[in-house]
Amino acid sequence: MSTTRREIAAPHWLVQLLRSTPVPIPWNMVARAVLALAVPLAVGYALGDIAVGALISTGALPTVLSESAGPYRYRARRLGGATAAAGLGYFAGLITGGIPAASIPVVVGVAAVSALISAAGSNASVAGLQMFVFCVLGTGQHVTGLRVEVLLGYFCVGAAWSLLVALATWTFRATSPERGAVAHVYVELAAMLSATDEATSRVARHQLTTAMNTAYDRLLTARSWLSGRDATYRQLLNLLSASTPAVEASVAMVNAGRRAPEDVIDHFIATSAAVLANQELPEPPEAPEGADPVLAALYAGLARIGKGDNRKRREIQPWHKRLRGWAGSLISGPLTWFAALRLTLCVAIAEVVALLVPFERSYWITLTVGIVLKPDFGSVFGRAVLRGIGTVIGVGIGAAVLAAGGEGWLLVLLIAVFAGGVAVGKVRNYGILSAFVTPLIILQMDLASTGSWDVVLARLVDTVLGCAIVLIFGYLLWPGSRRPQVGGRLADSLDSLVKYVDKGLVLAPSGEARLERSRARRRAYRALADLRTAFQQVVVEPSAAGRQAVAWWPVIAGLERVADAVTEVGVTLGRGAPAPADADIALLTAALTELAAAVREEREPAEMPMPDNEQLSGVVDQIGAAFDAVRGPDLVERAPLRLVRRFLPYHRRA
User: Fold this and answer.
1) Nearest to residue 62, comparing CAs of 36, 41, 35, 23?
2) Which end of the chain lies in a sparser environment, N or C, as judged by fewer CB atoms within 10 Å?
3) Would you tell me how many other CB atoms lie within 10 Å of the CB of residue 352?
4) How far is 26 from 461, CA to CA, in rounded Å?
């Protein structure tokens, strides 16, 4: 990589680190967070004991920190599990608090368990994090002078209140999240077809992929164990499935650089409104005379919406099979053990440092280490830096509260503001989250009882020490943490793309064949979307890992264009366009397989024969561009290191 490229790398990672995700403010989550955290404080103050209100409000924190969008049953499992785990951790911290010989082994053990159960899925990961966080917070509550059962009782009251707030509208809005997710797919389709340039349309296509993944995830999660509203979910899933031809034709239209007719865009918007309002779908517009294959496929796709075949209900997976699958992932996944070992070591160091720091309640050091080093939450470097920046800002806010003599109803109002900020920060930026959660916890657990400036200084020093432990022992000195990891993920995405080429360029005469083709397309686009997420997590680092992610970016973009080109050809099949010869398809899959092997084996890809077929010229051009990107000037920067491939399970050899 040239000197100029290295010079601009640092500003690039800094910009990426501070960038906020451009998503709408989740006002419903903001409202729930405010009610869950501020109401107990207000009631406590009104009854003359704001400290009790603060302790009850603390019990509502697990639900607020674990809140996410999704089906109500899914959210009930996620929030209930996180709250129960937090209560268990809190109790373990309470009974060992004030006794370092007992609390240190317990905290370190909970940290290890928290890291290991992250492999069991998103809900288990969130529950593990809450168990660790509240175990650490519980170890500092002995200074209140209250009995363990009293503190635990206050926590349980707050937890019950927050769960009630989170799920109160279930009875009359049970299917609204899923209905909104399906409607959002049509909004993104209209946005993609309305784009006026390639850059805008590509961003819109990424958003469409995300919308479809979200809709399928929510519906399949709900239906996998649903009993009461099965007909509604089946209808929504059939509607989403029947939209596949329209989605494929829309992607083909955009990939061809053409703008869709206005009546098509208007129809998607009207369909979205009808789905959201649970009304009858509008009649699709008629295709114009003499429409070419791509345009004809688009109008045919509109006619198919709402006419999908019923699907069989997914079987409920027994708990013992899920447990066996998690255990298998631990046995075969050294990355999980590697992350657990790193977290355990850094937490142990933090606990020792906390004993040496002359501050009361120095558990904040351990808390910082555990939250930043959570193994499935992205870049360690980025989270450590954002945590430090956010905490400095948060401590500044806490200092301003003290300077203003914050107490009484002003304290309640500030808790409400910080609670809303936490809900926004969760979806926008980790630094924003840290900036609001720091003064929130300070007010709940410290200022309500002490009101001292020393608390503000102590939290600032504790956070800086925690971030320093993470950066030194968990990042700079930890083997493999600064080494590239994106290339192996890209090779796995290529495998999914090979399967899509194999299924997407052949005629699909039966419904089962069309279903298999649409599944292959979804898997390919989902793999590329996951790859883009991995890139965005690593690109914030100034190390070789961040530089490699930047160097891989043209290849990632090239593979997305290959998928779009395959989709464009696929929608024309059966509409006047013959299917490509099997030999030509075999050449394309062989080329992509060679590309994946070259990435895994750290070499330039060999020259591969390509089909001489006008119908496949777009696919051939995009595959050629991907080969050129892999052979480009940044090849050395992209080469995965062998040590990383030893430890990371997704660096498989062909």
Assistant:
1) 36
2) C
3) 13
4) 32
> Facing residues of 577 across strands?
573
Looking up tokens 């006419």 gives 307
pLDDT at 18: 55
Alpha helices in 67-197 (DSSP H): 72-96, 100-116, 122-139, 148-167, 176-194
Q: How far apart are CA 533 and CA 640, in angstroms?
A: 18
- Most distant CA pair in the chain, distance: 83
- CA–CA gap between residue 573 and residue 562 (Å, rounded): 17
Side-chain half-sphere exposure of 330, counting CA atoms within 13 A = 16
- As a whole number of angstroms, the distance between CA 466 and CA 385 comes to 11
Residue type at 375 in one-letter notation: P
Average pLDDT, integer, range 596-605: 81
Q: How far apart are the first and last CA of the chain?
A: 28
Instruction: Answer yes or no: is pLDDT of 586 > 50.
Output: yes
Q: Which residue in this structure is represented by tokens 């077809």? A: 193
From 139, 137, 133, select the one nearest 102 (Cα to Cα).
139
* DSSP string across 182-204: HHHHHHHHHHHHH--SHHHHHHH
Report which of 399, 413, 361 is spatially closest to residue 50, judged by C-alpha positions.
Answer: 413
What pLDDT, in 10s, does the model give residues 228-284?
445 666 778 778 888 888 888 888 888 888 888 889 899 999 998 888 887 888 888
pLDDT(491) > 90 = no
Query: Residue 519: helix, strand or coil by DSSP?
Result: helix
